[in-house]
Design brief:
By secondary structure, this protein is mainly α. The protein has 32 helices and no strands. Helix 14 runs antiparallel to helix 15, helix 24 (436-449) runs antiparallel to helix 25 and helix 27 runs antiparallel to helix 28 (506-518). It holds the Pfam family TPR_16. This is Tetratricopeptide repeat protein.
């Protein structure tokens, strides 16, 4: 039967394990060559051989279970082995190994310690016990064993590394550093050990020694640019900004294309408020396509906060555009570009960048929110509908996205779909209670569109309860009531409040005039319509048509017809308007 790679590894491991067991644990017959001289001891020798064979058989059986990853079956076999010969260290070692596999670490320590006490010269027993002590956070005991191992074999690097780690775990930083120093005498200056020592010095708040280690590393390999950059990073992180410039400039002399050095210099200039030098460094950084986006974005984010003048903003646009093009799959680059374009009020371009970010990574809630906001600002209802649906595919439980979707359906007069989305929004919007009145306002419009006036009125009432000064509701609710000739006192109260708050708004003045018209208060209606028509740039054909209706009621027939014709020229094309013009008489709905 062929073994797969994992089984083969386990098999080899346990073959080696068996060799260790055989060589270091169970005794071998010492005088097998002397059979001729010891024939009188043959019965005892045979008995010892039989006993040894039993032990080896038990060991082999237990290791077979271990190879099959069945330590629970191996353990009873190893226990029999220990019972057969309690003074044999290998049996206790095997027991501990099975217990470790079963994660019974305290019991494993007992068995492992027995093996170690019986044979302290065996490095396998010592290592197993030390590892168990460390696992159970008995760091002092673990350190004692590694200290012994290292003293017997000072050139063993692994012992030194393990001992230093134990010291770190036990917060004995000085001892850990001393151990690393001993290792350095054997290995010389190495990156790994230097980094460990630096971290320990920093944890001791000893920046000078951490910096000294960095300088030693540079001296050991003067051509290695990254060591100078790392030294500068440590200086910057500890607010030693001025000192960081020298190693960075040295790094760039060795390698002018070292992007991270340019990034750090740009960051230093940013901190110092030197926009021009920061910009120069960033140009060098952004021209490097091999540098990851992360450091570019980190520096750029701080750089953007420095920008004050339009000229500085213009230079930033060039950089960010380059960043976006260099890293087309990095959504953060597109978001930053979009943010800057939005600052410049370039809404369409900003939305394009946000969309690129969303297509690269659809999981950013804020990006979808920005897209939908810009859809609204741009009055692009079809886009809002499409984008809200895409956002809801990723965030089906976000009430704000349902609100945007409902709003788009409402504007397109798809009232049933609007109601469905707005009601879902209302159900989910608990985290933004301030939005509830606005949702109810939209529901009022949608229900009115379907002619469900009771539901419409109820929604408007809820909206006004949450926000009594909502212009949209005061206007629509009062106007719809006037069209239905219902609750006219309430309609008048709301329209009066509206024109008191917005005395020069033609739309609101027209609504109030129409409520007065329905109430047959034609002279008052005329006053408000004439006021609405003072701003010729804001007057709609509807207002002019209403003015004609009021004039007709006041007996000014010719003037009324003239106003209706003017309304038609302004774009009003209703059948009712055409009928009024043709007959010269008022035809009310």
């Amino acid at each position: 039967m062929a073994l797969d790679s994992n089984m083969r590894t386990e098999y080899i491991k346990w073959i080696l394990f068996f060799c260790v067991f055989a060589n270091l644990g169970i005794s071998q017959p010492a005088n097998a060559q002397r059979r001729g001289k010891d024939r009188d001891k043959e019965p005892q020798k045979a008995e010892n051989t039989d006993f040894r064979l039993i032990e080896e058989s038990l060991a082999a059986e237990g290791m077979k279970f271990m190879m099959k990853d069945e330590p629970d079956r191996a353990l009873p076999v190893f226990e029999k082995l220990v019972q057969a010969n309690g003074n044999d260290a290998a049996g206790h070692y095997l027991m501990a190994t099975a217990l470790v596999k079963m994660e019974k670490f305290d019991e494993a320590i007992t068995a492992s310690k027995k093996a170690y006490d019986l044979n302290k010269e065996n490095i396998y027993y010592a290592q197993q016990l030390a590892e168990l002590y460390a696992k159970r956070r008995k760091y002092s005991e673990a350190a004692g064993i590694y200290e012994t191992l290292l003293s017997k074999n000072p050139s063993n690097i692994q012992y030194g590394i393990e001992l230093a780690a134990i010291y770190v775990f036990n917060d004995q930083f000085d001892k850990a550093i001393d151990t690393y120093n001993i290792l350095e005498k054997t290995l010389g200056i190495t990156e790994e050990i230097t980094r460990q020592k630096q971290q320990l010095y920093l944890r001791q708040n000893n920046l000078e020694k951490a910096l000294a280690e960095g300088k030693k590393l540079i001296a050991s390999e003067p051509a290695e640019v990254s060591y100078r950059v790392e030294l500068a990073e440590m200086l910057i992180a500890n607010d030693r900004i001025v000192e960081a410039v020298a190693p960075l400039e040295e790094a760039l002399k060795i390698n002018p294309d070292e992007a991270q050095a340019h990034v750090l210099l740009a960051d230093i200039y940013r901190r110092n408020g030197d926009v021009q030098k920061c910009n120069q460094e960033l140009k060098l950084v952004f021209a490097n396509p091999n540098l990851d986006a992360d450091p570019k974005i980190r520096v750029l984010s701080g750089y953007l906060k420095m920008l004050k003048t339009p000229a500085e903003l213009g230079e930033a646009v060039t950089l960010i555009k380059q960043l976006s093009e260099t890293h087309p799959n990095e959504p953060r680059a597109h978001v930053i570009y979009g943010d800057l374009l939005a600052r410049q009020d370039k809404k369409a371009e900003a939305r394009e960048m946000y969309l690129k970010a969303a297509y690269a990574d659809a999981s950013d809630f804020a990006v979808w929110g920005a897209i939908l906001q810009l859809d609204g600002d741009l009055n692009q209802v079809d886009s809002m509908l499409v984008h809200s649906e895409k956002a809801l595919e990723v965030f089906p439980n976000q009430g704000m996205f349902w609100y945007s979707n409902g709003t788009a359906h409402l504007i397109k007069k798809q009232y049933k779909e609007a109601i469905s989305s707005l009601e879902e929004s209302l159900r989910l919007i608990s985290d933004k209670p301030e939005m509830i009145p606005y949702i109810n306002a939209q529901l009022g419009d949608a229900y009115n569109g379907l002619g469900e006036h009771a539901k419409s009125d109820a929604a408007y009432e809820l909206a006004l309860k949450g926000n009594p000064d909502d212009d949209h509701v005061l206007n629509n609710y009062s106007y719809f009531l006037s069209l239905r000739r219902e609750k006219l006192d309430l309609a008048l109260k709301m329209s009066e409040k509206l024109v008191q708050q917005h005395q020069n708004n033609p739309t609101y003045l027209d609504t109030h005039a129409w409520v007065l018209y329905i109430r047959k208060e034609y002279k008052k209606a005329k006053e408000f319509l004439e006021k609405a028509m003072l701003d010729s740039n804001s007057v709609s054909g509807t207002i002019v048509e209403h003015y004609g209706d009021v004039l007709f009621k006041l007996g000014e027939r010719d003037n009324a017809v003239a106003q209706w014709k003017k309304a038609k020229r302004m774009g009003e094309t209703t059948e009712l308007l055409d009928k009024k013009i043709a007959t010269g008489a008022l035809h009310e709905q």
